[in-house]
Amino acid sequence: MKNKTILVAIVSFALGALICNLFFPLLFQEGNPWPQVKGIAQLTFGNADMVKLSGSDNKYLTKSKGGWETVDSFLKNKGYEFTEQMGSGYFYKSSNGNIVMTRRQYSRFYVIWDITENKNNNLTEELKDCLPKSDTASHEKCNELLKQITDYDSCVKAGFSIMKSNPPQCAAPDGRTFVQIN
Question: What whole-number distance in Å separates Cα of residue 60 and Cα of residue 78?
Answer without folding.
Answer: 15
